[in-house]
Specification:
Four Helix Bundle (Hemerythrin (Met), subunit A); disordered C terminus
Length: about 210
């Protein structure tokens, strides 16, 4: 009985010994240089972000500083360039008619880029953006351009120049009127004239009466 108890105790001791976990390897403690490298990387990232932000802000200011060309100015420029195509009636009429349509859309915030001529004129007639004479002139202009673009009609140079003149006339009649404040020179001249009149009146009242 004594030997049995001893064997049991030996087995229990052996089982307890086998259940113990292996010893973990030592934990490496990062050196001070690692923190230096991490700090340097963070500073570099911060500097890069600041430089990128400043470049973005500079470009935005440059874009904002670019003056916006008014629609009527751009339309006249395109019509001037279209004269180089006057020897090619179809190409000339495409550029001239597209220029007028784009100008009217931008000038009056009238968005109709995919409309046919009939649809474009119908929608425009329903508005008060143009006068009756201007609407009729525009309808005649676009119809004549369509004859050249789609019906293979080939007008002479005089007729093409007449179309060009009609486009320019429509722009002249519909471009916005800019009111400019009186210049400083005009204000100064008015003040000078008023002062002179006041001085003359004072001198006249000071003269002896006969």
């Amino acid at each position: 009985m004594g030997s049995g108890v001893s064997n049991s105790l030996f087995l229990l001791a052996g089982a307890g010994t086998n259940s113990l976990r292996d010893i973990k390897p030592p934990v490496e403690i990062p050196s001070a240089w690692a923190w230096v490298w991490w700090l340097a990387a963070g500073l570099a990232a911060a500097i890069a972000a600041i430089v990128a932000w400043r470049l973005w802000k500079k470009r935005r200011l440059e874009v904002a500083a670019v003056p916006v060309v008014p629609p009527h100015v751009r339309a006249r420029q395109r019509l001037q360039q279209a004269l180089a195509l006057i020897g090619q009636p179809r190409e000339f009429c495409i550029v001239v008619s597209d220029t007028i349509r784009q100008y009217l859309e931008e000038r009056f915030r009238f968005h109709a880029p995919d409309r046919t001529t009939e649809e474009f004129l119908h929608e425009l007639r329903e508005t008060e953006l143009l006068t009756r004479d201007q609407k009729e002139s525009l309808g005649d202009f676009l119809t004549r351009c369509d004859l050249v673009k789609f019906a293979r009609y080939e007008p002479g140079e005089l007729e093409l120049r007449d179309l060009h003149a009609s486009a320019l006339r429509l722009i002249d009649e519909t471009e916005p009127v800019e009111t400019q404040p009186p210049s400083d020179a005009g204000q100064n001249q008015s003040a000078t004239d008023a002062a002179s009149a006041t001085t003359a009146a004072s001198l006249h009242s000071a003269l002896p009466k006969h």
